[in-house]
Specification:
8 helices; disordered C terminus
């Protein structure tokens, strides 16, 4: 009778240990998933702030850049695409489109000395540049969180708990091949800009 009780107690303690370990794994995966969601929400807030600044920037620039409608149209279209994006991947693509459009706008603005001297333009340019830097920082945090999450849900024994929780790998916020290329900036002559 004594050895049966000890055996039963050993199995009970083993089962409790396994259960506690599974709960720890489960809670760790839930924490990682929530950190991913929080990291993305932080990026989304900054993207929204940038979207809110774009109409002010376009209005400030319109009067000076009458011959650059294509550039203004690209910024406006990028903003619309960014606001209509729903998933993380769609927002990442739209963000890259917005970054390219803003780079083009700021490069073209170099041709307009009066615009570069406009205080509203300078404030908006600085604000958007600051937001871009903050978005880049948040992207790095987000990608770190996604890497940790994807690694954990692929490792044994976490993979078993992750499959039970129906957790899937998440995509990182990547830079496009277009953004890896060097930017070529062409300046128009002052006479062409004023024509």
């Amino acid at each position: 009778m004594g050895s049966g009780v000890i055996t039963a107690l050993a199995w009970f303690l083993f089962a409790c240990g396994v259960l506690i370990y599974v709960v720890i794994l489960y809670n760790g995966l839930v924490r990682l998933r929530n950190e991913n969601d929080r990291a993305w929400a932080n990026i989304d807030v900054l993207l929204k702030q940038r979207h809110d600044e774009i109409p002010n920037l376009v209005e400030t620039v319109k009067g000076y850049m009458q011959h650059e409608q294509q550039t203004l149209l690209a910024v406006t279209q990028a903003r619309a695409a960014s606001m209509n994006a729903a998933s993380i991947n769609q927002k990442a693509v739209a963000d890259l489109q917005m970054v390219g459009a803003l780079r083009g706008l700021f490069a073209v603005a170099e041709n307009y000395p009066q615009l570069k001297a406009n205080q509203n333009f300078l404030k908006l340019q600085n604000r958007i540049t600051e937001l871009e830097e903050r978005i880049a920082d948040r992207r790095e945090f987000f990608n770190d969180d996604v890497t940790t999450y994807n690694t954990r849900i692929g490792q044994i024994p976490d993979v078993f708990v992750a499959s039970f929780m129906a957790l899937k790998p998440r995509s990182m916020f990547k830079v496009s091949d277009e953004d890896r290329k060097l930017v070529e900036v062409k300046f128009q002559s002052q006479g062409a800009a004023g024509a």
